[in-house]
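Subject: sequence -> structure tokens, single chain

Hey, anyone have a minute? Need the predicted structure for the following. Not urgent.
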Amino acid sequence: MTGRVRHPAGIQRLSYRPQPPYGLDLEIFSVSSLRRRAGSGEMRATHRYEFHLLLCVSWGECTHTIDFQRVHCGSGSRLVVKAGQVHSFGAEEDWDGWMVLFRPEFVMARTGLVADQADAIEVDGLQQHLALRKGELRIVTDAIARMREDAAAKAPLAQVQNL
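Reply:
Had a minute. Here:
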């Protein structure tokens, strides 16, 4: 479900700023942990991101706003918010999920070379909203949780970046 939302004045730009000493171009955390860090007021504010955001709703229901269009999400919803888009989490707080933030440079640009095609990720080609089935949701949330564990590993940054 989508709907038009009035354009708020003074939309704040958010850049990718992981908490030090974390230095990767990808950060993964739960919505509930962001809620604790940022507070309700900041979560309800509208921001223009300078990074990409993949969000997977693991339980509950919520209504997000992306580029002033409302998007209703239930358990199993996967959202893509691309760098440059405007986003608000909405007013609901009785839901949780995973967030994967990454810099636009993290995504390899597609070139005309066949060798690059297999490794490239096309964020622009992803649907903004996708409803995952229960089995798919479990696979996705397990993969995100594993990525979070891997990103939190205490390996030297140079070693992690060369993997």
